Amino acid sequence: MAEQQITMPVLGMTCANCVATVERNAKKIDGVADAVVNFGTEKVTVTYDPAKTTAQDIVGHIAKAGYQVPVAALELPITGMTCANCVATVERTLNKKVPGILEANVNFATEKATVKYIPGAVTRADMVAAIKRAGYGVVEIEAGDELVDAEKAAREREIKNQARKLWVGVIFTLPLFILSMARDFGLLGMWAHAPWVNYLFFALATPVQFYTGWDYYVGATKSLRNKSANMDVLVALGSSVAYFYSIVVMVGLLGGHVYFETSAAIITLIKIGKLLEVRAKGKTSEAIKALMGLQAKTARVERDGVEMDLPPDQVQVGDIVIVRPGEKVSVDGVVVSGYSTIDESLLTGESLPVDKKVGDTVIGATINKQGLLKIEATRVGRETTLAQIVKLVEEAQGSKAPIQALADRVSAIFVPVVIGIALLIFFVWLVLTGDFTAALVRLVAVLVIACPCALGLATPTAIVVGMGKGATQGILFRSSAALERAHELQAIVLDKTGTITKGQPDLTDLIVNSELPIINGLTNNSQLTVHNSLLQLAASVERGSEHPLGEAIVRAAQEQGLSLSEPTGFEAIAGHGVAAQVNGHKVLLGNLRLMERENIALNGLDEQAQTLQNQAKTAMWVAVDGQAAAVIGIADTIKEGSKEAIAELNRLGLQVVMMTGDNQATAQAIAAEAGIKRVLAEVLPGDKSANVAKLQEEGLVTGMVGDGINDAPALAQADVGMAIGTGADVAMETAAVTLISGDLAGVPKAIRLSRATMRTIKQNLFWAFAYNVILIPVAAGALAVFPNLTVYLRELHPIAAAFAMAFSSVTVVSNSLRLHRARI
Length: 824
Description:
Blueprint: E1 4-9, H1 16-27, E2 32-38, E3 43-48, H2 55-64, E4 72-79, H3 84-97, E5 101-107, E6 112-117, H4 124-133, E7 137-138, H5 147-184, H6 195-212, H7 214-225, H8 231-250, H9 260-284, H10 286-292, E8 299-303, E9 306-310, E10 320-323, E11 332-337, E12 340-343, H11 345-348, E13 354-356, E14 361-362, E15 367-368, E16 373-379, H12 385-398, H13 404-433, H14 436-449, H15 452-472, E17 475-477, H16 480-486, E18 491-495, H17 496-500, E19 501-512, H18 517-523, H19 530-541, H20 548-559, E20 568-573, E21 577-582, E22 585-590, H21 592-597, H22 606-614, E23 618-624, E24 627-638, H23 642-651, E25 655-659, H24 664-674, E26 678-680, H25 688-697, E27 702-706, H26 712-717, E28 720-724, H27 729-734, E29 737-739, H28 746-780, H29 791-794, H30 798-817
Parallel strand pairs: 18-25, 18-27, 25-26, 27-28, 28-29
Antiparallel strand pairs: 1-3, 2-3, 4-6, 4-7, 5-6, 8-9, 8-10, 10-16, 11-14, 11-16, 12-13, 12-15, 17-29, 19-24, 20-21, 21-22, 22-23, 23-24
Helix pairs in contact: 5-6, 5-9, 6-8, 6-9, 7-8, 8-9, 8-14, 9-30, 10-15, 12-15, 13-14, 13-15, 14-28, 14-30, 15-28, 15-30, 16-28, 19-20, 28-30
């Protein structure tokens, strides 16, 4: 193979030594003949033998040397693919014949190629030209935003073209088939056996063969030119044998029966099947198309005091966007004015609207239900959450699941093997029976009934539907491998803070010693209850506090609608608590040490304080005018829905493990409340990944659910890492699965979805393999040894074979579409 030359940008070079390092490391690669760095342009030109190394190897070696080659990615909508061999041809063309492409993966279900390439080393035009040379097409677009419409229009044109060809096939095949069968059953009289009738059949069959079936000839020619063989080869070969054999009989060179109706019916039936398959495949991407369609059509923007309606892609970061009740939020942003509830169900899968007030974030494409909101745009265009979700799902759909490897290997050799079997069967039948026509019928039946398409569609169609359904439920899988691996999980580790719990302390208890005279004095001149009076005093002392415990008390008072007083004589006592005068009362708020320091009588509240501590709660003492009046319990409370989600994980048969830095007693108390039996307590942030590894060493396929920066190593260590969508970006970037809603209920949903998808893939693969393994021998005449069987079973007619082949792929795609209705 001739040497190739590639020029790629290199980042991070600062001096001549850097230049030498890049050149030296590139030249170390086996297959690289030369490497020259231009320091001025910061580019390296590498001459290499593509038979020995690849652009990806070169980029990898440069990265190992400490420098970076920027990589970009794009998607190419491919037209003209008919089976798994076409997928392999396009992938091979892009990966092997286009310098500058690092990796190209083709998804047969979505008919898209996902290409990672080096900017400047290759262009989209180069890729398109290579694909066209291989015999396929690429949907041309003017701009990124027109992708969906351009692709949709191209697909619709293709369907109309195929439908037109199909109707021509039906118009000519139907009378041909009826006349032929009627003649064979003696329903037409002797005139039907006149020689001119065969010419009539020829006239009816020819438009079908070379108009309706022309695509198969074109596809077969291109496939063979690329030194591969696909479904088109089988259809073209099978129908042509029947058609041209019939011509030979028609002109009198051979005696016997003509099979014009067979060649026409083969092409027409398979065309019906392919058209149904194309339409069914289009439905597999309905979920992602629905997500794309969620984008608001216009945005009302306020600039310089003037309101104007703009397309969402013209909104700029910092713009104030006005959203009225019932309208869609056009961009991601922060509420700067107003209060409302937002319906986020189409993105998160959560049915209940979410309250939004000033300072809260909102997501584009969600629906404003009540009040008018003013939002400051923070993410626009391709940076919005919706755009990122669509991008992530499309990238994940374009990846290949490990389970697909077997189908790919079989598909690569399928057609040549089938042709070999067909020829072998032809000669065996010819030798055993001496009947050339019977042997030829067997050959055609074997060629036509074999179906590599079902094998190629079995995995990707299920993956596309499964991931699309997940996206509508707020579950984003980063790859097909993650979707596959999740169904094997045996243990799931839940980080406590922010995952099981809210991640912030809340007031849970307020225990009052109501027998104290001072308590009655608090309520004499107030409409408040005893509890609220003490809560008001405590919150007033902590007013303005930035301590999490103090904030929890103030927040609880505000939720009760209590007005807070301005404290005087405020004193912070380090390690103990705070003291202040509130409404004429001296109030102490702090731990037990503060009570002991101030010689405050505990008034029998010490037992209640101990009970709170046993429940993993922090006990805060409140003393009023020298008397212990109440004990406040504060804890990081369990999120709403966490208990139900954990119970569901237990029902799914998973071992649920809670991991926390809390002490063993505190951790056990929280775990017991949440319904978790196994606890990993006193785990330092840096040891989380090691604890996940220990579970894996026990032989457990382990998932990890977390939300914080310190969870990222553990998420990466786990077999499947799941990040809560409300957490840190680094956690979501590391995890294989992102749960947008921030709700733990997404974890069992993700596992059920994975199990349902894998179950569908296995059903599809079983059908695809069983179909070919059983019906190819039947078409070859394996049942001929059973004389008691009906002739239709012993001698499978090529038309019946074509019917079976036409609907085998449709069956696989339809089975995948059932995932839309799966309950997760």
